[in-house]
């Protein structure tokens, strides 16, 4: 088995060409090479070409390799994505100090800028922040506490690389829901506290009260009451203490 290199890849995408004429001032730069699935690049090169190509926001750079993610999602995947976004939105409502971002790319290193359907983070801890990128629009810089992804399957070809990138980038938990069935919830740091289950819920260890009903993997996720699950989780003493710590800057914080 070949050994995976840990060295950042060489800058492979060429810089955007200089404009043919600078008369009149301003003007946009010339066309670049464009993005192709499997290209090797740095985050800087990826962003430049992404801005020029007008690619959809799902495009990403994983371990220095371009992934365009252009497959049209199935109806069930669309419904499952909607359910997961509603779930995270309710947690943001119930948890002052936690912010939700959707359909967002997250810069984790010089070779990893990953797409997430949803991310949850605490701006006050200084680990993750939204930045206004003039080339490609808003993105997150640094690791969110929880990253949530929805795919056709929860065991995709890039799963091991994705987990490595998220772990090395400092993300605490990763939730991957598959439209064909299956859900994996990973704790990525060395904390012994793991995501758990009970009473029909899957429960975050990093964000107290973030409870997900196991029924979300039912044939029609849109009929599953994810809001009630979050309200139940956020009615616990553990969640109250967590929010108190976030608001006062003391005690247990998102990690």
Q: Which structural traits does this protein have?
A:
Restrct_endonuc-II-like; three-stranded antiparallel β-sheet; alpha+beta; Nuclease_put_TT1808; 255 residues
Mind explaining what this structure looks like?
This protein has helices at residues 43-53, 75-94, 159-169, 226-233, 237-248, and strands at 60-62, 65-67, 99-109, 112-121, 129-133, 137-141, 146-151, 173-178, 183-187, 196-198, 201-203, 211-213. It has a 7-stranded mixed sheet with strand order 5-6-3-4-7-8-9. It is of the alpha+beta class and 255 residues long. The longest helix has 20 residues, at 75-94. Residues 23-35 have a biased composition (Gly residues). InterPro entries: Nuclease_put_TT1808 (IPR012296), Restrct_endonuc-II-like (IPR011335).
- Stretches with pLDDT under 50, minimum 5 residues: 1-31
- How many H/I helices? 5
| Overall geometry | globular
User: How many distinct beta strands?
Assistant: 12
Order of helices and strands: HEEHEEEEEHEEEEEHH
The first-to-last residue Cα distance is: 35 Å
Structural class: alpha+beta
What is the helical fraction, as a range of percent? 10-25%
Mean pLDDT: 85
Strand order of the largest sheet: 5-6-3-4-7-8-9
Radius of gyration: 20 Å
- Largest beta-sheet characterization: 7 strands, mixed
């Amino acid at each position: 088995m070949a050994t995976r290199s840990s060295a950042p890849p060489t800058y492979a995408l060429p810089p955007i060409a200089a404009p043919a004429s600078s008369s009149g001032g301003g003007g946009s730069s010339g066309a670049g090479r464009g993005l192709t699935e499997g290209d090797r690049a740095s985050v800087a090169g990826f962003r430049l070409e992404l801005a020029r190509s007008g690619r959809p926001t799902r495009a990403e750079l994983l371990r220095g390799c371009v992934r365009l993610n252009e497959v049209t999602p199935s109806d069930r995947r669309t419904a499952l994505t909607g359910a997961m976004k509603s779930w995270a939105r309710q947690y943001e409502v119930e948890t002052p100090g936690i912010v939700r971002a959707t359909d967002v790319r997250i810069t984790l290193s010089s070779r990893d800028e990953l797409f997430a359907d949803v991310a949850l983070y605490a701006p006050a801890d200084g680990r993750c922040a939204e930045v206004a990128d003039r080339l490609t629009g808003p993105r997150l810089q640094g690791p969110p506490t929880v990253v949530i992804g929805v795919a056709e399957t929860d065991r995709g070809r890039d799963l091991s690389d994705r987990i490595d990138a998220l772990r090395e980038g400092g993300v605490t938990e990763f939730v991957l829901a598959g439209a064909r069935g299956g859900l994996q919830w990973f704790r990525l740091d060395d904390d012994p506290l793991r995501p758990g289950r009970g009473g029909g819920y899957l429960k975050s260890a990093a964000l107290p009260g973030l409870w997900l009903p196991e029924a979300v993997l039912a044939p029609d996720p849109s009929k599953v009451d994810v809001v009630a699950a979050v309200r139940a989780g956020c009615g616990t003493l553990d969640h109250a203490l967590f929010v108190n710590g976030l608001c006062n800057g003391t005690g247990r914080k998102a990690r």
